[in-house]
What does this fold into?
Amino acid sequence: MIPIIRKQNKPAGAIFCLLLALTIHQTMTTDVSPTVVAPETSSHPASPVPPGPPERGNYNVTNATDTVCLMARMGLQLNISFISSSHGTTVQEVLNLHPNLIKFSGSCAPDFATLKLTEDNITLTFSFSLNSTSNKYHLSGLELSAALPDMAKRLVVANTTLNYMVGTLGHSYMCQKEKTLSVTQDFSLNTFQLQVQPFSVNGDFGAAEECELDEDDMLIPIIVGAALAVLVLIVIMAYLIGRSRSHAGYQTI
It folds into this structure.
């Protein structure tokens, strides 16, 4: 009887499965380039960086006899809203006025005085009124005319019913802190280190009457000092009372 020798089958199936697994693994681990999404562009203009505090300027108005009748020292900053010609939308801008570029003029009357400041295409006019009955004056009007390069049209705004910078005749009004004067919806004015006297000027500023902001700064150290004084007084009184009680505990034999 002839023996039958069985040949062993090659592991073809196993090799095929191994190759398939390697192919699938390589396919799954291949780096896929991420989809880059282009950022959306906006048509709105970028918000400009606001400038720092403006430089303080000196502005004196003289009358017909060349005598100073109005004195003002202040730094000025404009807050304006206008329609941009390049974007077609309303934008807000903050501008400092520069004393070395400003031309100033004005007029004085017994109960009315004006100060006009002009820098390039910007004109700012202050109007002061005096109440002869109460001897009190105040800033009664502000007018702004501006034509900036990006303006769709010239901005002209005014308000003649203001009641800022109230002072007594013969005295100056002073506000060292930054103060915002609302004029119209499209215009407000920031003042810095302001001192003004529109009437009864006698060579120099009269005694200063300070604004509420400056008075508050003066009030805080006064309150703190008073509180410390009261605390020290309480400690001294407690010490004296304790000492008197300790002496009362000893009696002479």
Q: What stands out?
A: The chain has two helices and 13 strands. The longest strand covers residues 68-83. The CA atoms of residues 172 and 208 lie 5 Å apart. The chain has a mean pLDDT of 82.
